Amino acid sequence: MIRVKIKSWTASFRYPTFQSGYQPTLPVPPLSTIQGILSAARGEVVSFTEIPFVGYVFKSGGRGVDLERIYALGKTETDVIKREVLFDNTLYLYLPDEWENYFRRPRYQLLLGRSSDMATVESVEKVKLEEKTNVPVGGTIVPATSGLPGLVHALPVEFDYSTIPRRARMARPFTVLPFPRNNAQRKRQTYGGKLLYDSEINIGVWIYEGLHGKV
Amino acid sequence: MSGVNLTREQSEKRTQSGSLFYWTGHPFVDAGLVAILLIAGKKKPEDLTVEDVEKAISFAAELYATKEWSTKYIHGMIFPNSGILMANPSMGKKRSPTSIAENLQSIFEELKSSDNDSPTCVLCGRRPAYSKKDIYLSVFPLLGTGGVPNFFHSANLRGADICAHCVFLAQFMPLISYRLSRVLVIHAYPYELMLELSKEALEDIKKSKLASQARGFRRPENFLFHLVGEVTRKMESSEFWENASVTLYYFICNNQNQILDLIHIPTPVLRFVAYANYIDPMGWKRIVAMGWRVLPDENDFDKFERERRNVVYSRLLNNESILSYFYNSKERKVNTNWNLLAFYCQEVLGLDEKILEFVKDVGDRIVETIGMLPDHKLDDEVRSLERAEKLYQFEAFFIRIEKLRQNLGIDKPLMTFDEFARILMAYGEDVSISWKTVKNLLLFRIYEKLHDRLMKSAELDKIEEFGADESEYSIYGGGNE
Ligand SMILES: [Zn+2]
């Protein structure tokens, strides 16, 4: 498999329904954002059904709140909202080898959220991750049924872009697990089952493979 | 390879879903489900019957039709201009329990239909979006308004894709919300926990017909931490919080204002607060009390807890250390015992157990040394540790203690060179903790062991140094790290 390292100055991942007045950001991207990044890299809409497996780990340096002016469609008046933004971000994507070419020369601009959250590919490496039990997970989302404690929220898995507006193809309750900051958090976010472990980043990688051919 | 097969999970759920309702993970939808379950006196969505739902509808409709609920609460804070709940002030004349119940009933009926042409619900992903109404914030709080369609995907003029199931449940959310200066929804997982933390809201409504004011608490985090203590003491165990996920949604949604604070309580913090309430409730109270600018006396604690922002709570929520609140440096006494301190260090700060034991041991050796000094000298030494604000001052303290041991003729050295290096690095790679963590631990141990003597010498000092500049003492006023 390959590991793609993507960096950005800013990122913002909206909750599905908090969109008026204040837009908080999820601490890590949902799967639908990953779908967007994969699609941008390849230059056409992709579905997880075509991808045998995918995993990701996201880290950010901090967060803050920004003011954003919204130009209402078809109107002259504007609206100002507060938006929470993540800074100094790194996203690691774990993908099948054939994705290397797409990320070496992405077709469209990669984004970690809005059109202004531009991201660049820093490296694409072949990696071999070892399978381990009892490893900490973080910087990703896991199904709420995993039993790991964190922020539980309903999130879209992927969108169908064949219509306007796009439509959710699947949504589930997930547990959002930020990248652990200390040993205590690592301990709390330790998963008892088997997981691939990235020893360079020192974190377990939750791999989604059940989506292949099924959504 | 590993991971969980989401689709398998989904199809299993589908086969079980003869049930009317299911958990979604969305705080407002789950809250509505909690309300219906609590009204029915049940714990699982699959146990709910149509009669339970009808009971909930008439319970809600009765309340929502009153002026207190409709214009002030529902319209003013949650669902502005709601047509479903008839909270729009212009609907005052037509508003009645029957008409609200009819509206709710008609959405409930939609659960049976399966309009496959509709997009899938963005929250539960199981049902087609509700199409009889455009879904904006009057139907589902904190969504955008129809006036600014760019809040929605591709400027969807129909608002958000949310299904009848999720819209229906969200209408019951006010029944388990707490009304502080904004609306508080406590979202928790596993869901039994959410039932437990929300039931007071419904009980209050049953008593007063008014939304629960959370016993006059004005800050959501204070209320939650208070509940954690109560639940733990009632359960007589802190295990309840083992893998608990708790997030507070503190919002207001009306025509002028849409604000949301999203407060996630880290699980290590939950576990620690529960454990503290379980093994040393009085000590925990003393620690919390130091989080206010003015230390409350015994009678004021409850009042402060209800009304004032507490630094201990906010530091816990921001992953900042509260070690210095474990002792009162002004009175040179500890607020709790070493056990609770150790639990905090391991569970929240992630300190290694061995390191902790080692620091405790060094603390005991320091106590052994300075304990042999006359009162005023003892006071000098402790003061030099208290005042160490720079690393070199901290190091100098150990060198002085080492010299003292030699002068006092104590056999063993305070520590070896390796141990010295270790104590300066005991906090490992985590730079958010620092040598000040070790300093706090040592001071805790010293106060714990030598409080009586330290206070005696402080009394002496007061007499000797009478007239000295008061401000010199103010730097000991506890709380700062
Ligand atoms: Zn739904």
CATH class of chain A equals: Alpha Beta
The end-to-end distance of chain B, rounded to whole angstroms, is: 46 Å
What would the CATH topology of chain A be?
Alpha-Beta Plaits
- Total strands of chain B: the figure is 6
Uncertain runs of chain A are none
Topology pattern of chain B, helix = H, strand = E: HHHHHHEEHHEEHHHHEEHHHHHHH
Instruction: Please tally the helical runs of chain A, counting DSSP H or I stretches of 4 or more residues.
Output: 3
Biggest interface and residues each: A-B, 66 and 71 residues
Question: Number of folding domains of chain B?
Answer: 3
Which overall shape of chain B is indicated by the principal axes computed on the Cα atoms?
A: elongated
The SS-based structural class of chain A is mainly beta
List the helices and strands and how they pair.
The complex is a heterodimer of chains A (215) and B (481).
Chain A: E1 2-11, E2 22-23, H1 31-42, E3 54-71, E4 78-95, H2 100-104, E5 110-111, E6 118-126, E7 130-136, E8 140-143, E9 151-160, E10 167-177, H3 183-188, E11 190-198, E12 203-205, E13 207-208
Parallel strand pairs in A: 2-4
Antiparallel strand pairs in A: 1-4, 1-6, 3-4, 3-13, 5-6, 7-11, 8-10, 9-10, 11-12
Chain B: H1 6-16, H2 27-40, H3 50-64, H4 67-78, H5 97-110, H6 164-170, E1 178-179, E2 183-189, H7 191-208, H8 220-235, E3 245-253, E4 258-265, H9 267-279, H10 281-289, H11 301-307, H12 311-317, E5 327-328, E6 333-334, H13 338-349, H14 353-370, H15 375-386, H16 391-408, H17 417-425, H18 435-464, H19 471-474
Antiparallel strand pairs in B: 1-2, 2-3, 3-4, 5-6
Bound molecules: zinc ion.
Zinc ion is lined by residues 121, 123-124, 127, 162-163, 165-166 of chain B.
